[in-house]
Amino acid sequence: MSTPRVRLPRSARADEEIEIRTLLNHPMVTGLSSDNPRDMLARFEARMNGAQVLSYDFGNGSAANPTFTFHVRAAAPGNFEFVWTHEDGREFRAEGSVDVS
Amino acid sequence: MTANRREFLQGAAVSAALVLVSGTALHAEENAEWQAWRDQILDGREASEGGIELDVPRVAENGAQVPLTVRIDSPMTDADHVRAIHIIATRNPAPEIGSFHLSPQLARAEVFTRIRLAEEQEILVLAELSDGRVLGQAAIVTVSAGGCAT
After folding, report:
1. Is B149 within 8 Å of B66 (Cβ atoms)?
2. Please, which residues 21-80 of chain A have a Cβ atom closer than 8 Å to chain B?
3. pLDDT tens digits, residue range A42-59?
4. pTM, entire model
5. Number of folded domains in chain A?
């Protein structure tokens, strides 16, 4: 498991749309067709200043090394938190912030 | 790909989409797992076709990493936004690909991710709107090399 990678702009104008990209290296083994035991993420969550902006429930058809791209309205300076939760309860986290002027 | 083949695929996509989106379609395969999952999401509601831009390759070289973008024209305000986007596989061993939950803080109802497809199949996207309506859109993806362990 490697550190999650997150790409977001350092700064933005007020109410500008900002693009956020995330990537977590993870094999996402379903356990259906190999001898390897199931090893799957359950949920991804992106929060801005503590409030959830996007979440995703992983199904078996989610690809390995899950990546997401989405767009947020930067109304105020934003502290972002990204959390991937494994089916076994482990969490992987990343943070980022955007200056808004 | 010949013009005929293209027309066939487009025609198939349109007619199959009607079957996929409607919970009461006559010709739909019975007792399919994906239909149970679709009906659970619909929860008695009817999905109307259209309003969703579903961007997937017509032919995926690698079924294990198929790029998918879903775009819905929505102002994304507290009063009018897309609440959830569900992606359903009709011919994977398990029908659940994933479900997005969106908040009005998003600038657009647009998400990108990568999915895996075991074989050529139709995928179905259902979008739940804040006013309770549900939109549906289907697309056929041909897979050159299937994504294993889907």
Report:
1. no
2. 29-34, 48, 51-73, 75
3. 999 999 999 999 999 999
4. 0.88
5. 1
DSSP character string of A14-29: TTEEEEEEEE-----B
CATH number at A89 reads 2.60.40.10
What span, in angstroms and rounded, lies between the C-alpha atoms of B144 and A1?
29
The domain containing residue A40 runs over which residues? Answer: 5-100
Residue in A32, A56, A73 closest to B149 by CB: A32
Topology of domain B5-145 in CATH is Immunoglobulin-like (2.60.40)
Q: Which of A53, A61, A68 sits opposite B112 (nearest CB)?
A: A68
Q: Which of B69, B11, B9, B51 is nearest to B136 (CA)?
A: B51
- Separation CA A41–CA A22 (nearest Å): 14
